[in-house]
Amino acid sequence: MPASATNSLRVAVLADSDTRWKWGALTASRLAPEGADIRLDGFLLRGRATPTARQLQEVGVRPDSLREVTGVEFLRALGTPEAAESYDVLVLALVGGGVQAMLHGLRHAWGARSRRPVVVTGYVGVVYEKLADGLLLRHGADLVLANSRQDAERFRAVYEGVGADVGSVTEVALPFLGGTPYEGAAEQGGRPYTVVFAVQPSVPDNRKDRTYLLNRLIQHARLHPDREVLLKLRSKPGEHTTHIEELPYQKLAQKTDLPSNFRLVYGHMGEVLDTTDLLVTVSSTAALESLHRRIPTAVLTDLGIREALGNHHFVGSGCLASWDQLDSGHEPAPDPAWVARQGVGADGSYAAAFDAARDRITKLIAAELPPLTPYYTPVTAPGYLPGILARHHLGPDGSPLPGAPAADRQAGPVRQIVRRAARGAYRHGVQRVAPVIRRMGEL
After folding, report:
1. Is the pLDDT of residue 368 over 90?
2. Continuous segment of H or E residues that includes residue 425
């Protein structure tokens, strides 16, 4: 009998990075019916971006259980009849290829079993690249969550355009929006006016542009000694997030004489926004968190408005600005119609943003579910799908390949040490060795 029958909800979340764990765990809590007792079991997909203990703690979600697994180990854990019937919801908080592999693996494991979890997936933030690719890799889940009205329309258009079922697309909002609405600089209670630059691990992706942005932030601090200027960092050296960061800003800042009103900060974005008067970014999802709280928000145009930067998503927002404009005191004013289409909920509608998804999940839990049916199959994508599945040690039919991990077992102390050392060596190579080789190649 499903856990929901006793007014409780048992949810499994599989995530492959800190940001996706944050999205998956918070989405699970938003999807639970009001008053439901939630049991959350977390699974961390082993890889280059597996979050550290500090990163998990920063998210602020405490699961009832948490373990690190390979894809095949996860499928063995969730593929048994007992697991299929005991979980109500499974949230796949993974990159597109990981979602597709798990969908095919679960289809193979579950077969035609009608009592299984409702499978949910989606995106951790703004979808500004690889729209068709990412969407089709997520097709096959029972719910594909769209974080805004605009995304829901785009998602349905893609699925309709290829003849795929659009019924899974469900409009919600980002699960981590919230906090006290901003009341203005005049209400800051004696603290200095605070400017926060929210960095991104991969945007921009070169030393020249990242150094430029850092220098402009430092220049802003010097031009406004009465302001507090914060560089909000995503991860500490050696940690990885969803995207690889080869040139961490903290390393660039070490070579610069920083003014006294300039600080580097880590921590939960919501806590940083509690004392923010102006949020500046290139294209971070932090901009949507800031807009939700009505904090003045600037999306930089200094490096151009380009798809590669992701700031093209903010065309029409009223938030685009340059450092020259911000240095002169400009505060962007967001366009209300644009904000409303982004699922931000600054008008108070956020509380109801997950109602439709909750209703769908409640109905699906009570129903007999059909087998998972992804759009990509060995017939529709014979030159693409097998490679995606093979990266997760799965064959074209979703079954584990020979040589895949043989058992779902806890790693012993020696194995844990070796794994941490290997992961550290990989990160050292990405952040230190690779940039040096790249520079040598440019000589």
Report:
1. yes
2. helix 413-428
